[in-house]
């Protein structure tokens, strides 16, 4: 039996309006989670280099747990497991944002730790010699320099988190992949639809990469 496959461009084009409905959910989960994750990353990243063990150990435990377990397991635990603990259901969108926040927060913590520790200790001594307190020295001298060095890895994490949202179709979040699954169930055009889904993800990540390069260049130019 001879098998012939012909790409149905019309089916791919027809799927675009329906698939575009998933982009707001993809972006909301990604950037909502990343915003919270950035705050968590700063907090736990700084705690992980604190000299006090009772602050450093919990931060290290959080980082290792969420870096060492798959994000799919994390979102399934939040969506299906936590309701048993709290005695009520969790909205799929909330579960998705929470998973991105906790997962990205762990990775961003390491970015923050590495960025801060990469600054020469002489910078701290210089700030103290000018009469600044350690807190003033950190936020006025150390943090601005460290943050410039964090921009590339933070951008990479943002792109990873956007792609991670594709896993959340398993809990029914209406993001790009879920929209594609629904459309395929009615049209049986899996190849064409997933092709379009891939192109849409690529468009989002390439746009973000372009923006991040501009930010990085401006940051370097201001040094």
TrEMBL record:
What does the UniProt keyword field contain? Answer: Amino-acid transport, Cell membrane, Membrane, Transmembrane, Transmembrane helix, Transport
Write down the membrane topology: Multi-pass membrane protein
Q: Among its keywords, does the record have Cytoplasm?
A: no
Q: Which GO terms describe its cellular component?
A: ATP-binding cassette (ABC) transporter complex
Residue span, ABC transmembrane type-1 domain: 23-212
Which CDD domains does the record associate with it? TM_PBP2
| GO biological process assignments | amino acid transport
Looking up Pfam families in the UniProt record yields: BPD_transp_1
Q: Where is this protein localized, as stated in its record?
A: Cell inner membrane; Cell membrane
So what does this one do?
A: Part of the binding-protein-dependent transport system for glutamine; probably responsible for the translocation of the substrate across the membrane.
What protein does this entry describe?
Answer: Putative glutamine transport system permease protein GlnP
**Which species?**
Marinobacter pelagius
The taxonomy runs: Bacteria, Pseudomonadati, Pseudomonadota, Gammaproteobacteria, Pseudomonadales
């Amino acid at each position: 039996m001879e098998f012939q496959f012909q790409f149905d461009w019309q089916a791919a084009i027809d799927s675009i309006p329906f698939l575009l409905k998933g982009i707001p959910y993809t972006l909301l989960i990604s950037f909502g989670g990343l915003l919270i994750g950035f705050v968590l990353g700063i907090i736990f990243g700084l705690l992980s280099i604190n000299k006090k063990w009772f602050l450093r150990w919990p931060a290290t435990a959080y980082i290792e747990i969420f870096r060492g377990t798959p994000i799919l397991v994390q979102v399934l635990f939040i969506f299906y497991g936590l309701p048993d603990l709290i005695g009520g259901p969790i909205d799929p969108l909330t579960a998705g944002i929470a998973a991105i926040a906790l997962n990205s927060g762990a990775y961003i913590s390491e970015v923050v730790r590495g960025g801060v520790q990469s600054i020469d200790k002489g910078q701290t001594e210089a700030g103290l010699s000018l009469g600044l307190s350690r807190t003033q020295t950190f936020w006025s001298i150390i943090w601005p320099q460290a943050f410039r060095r964090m921009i590339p890895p933070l951008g990479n994490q943002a792109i990873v988190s956007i792609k991670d949202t594709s896993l959340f179709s398993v809990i029914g979040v209406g993001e790009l992949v879920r929209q594609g699954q629904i459309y395929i169930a009615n049209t049986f055009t899996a190849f064409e639809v997933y092709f379009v889904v891939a192109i849409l993800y690529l468009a989002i990540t390439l746009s973000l990469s372009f923006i991040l390069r501009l930010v990085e260049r401006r940051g370097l130019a201001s040094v």
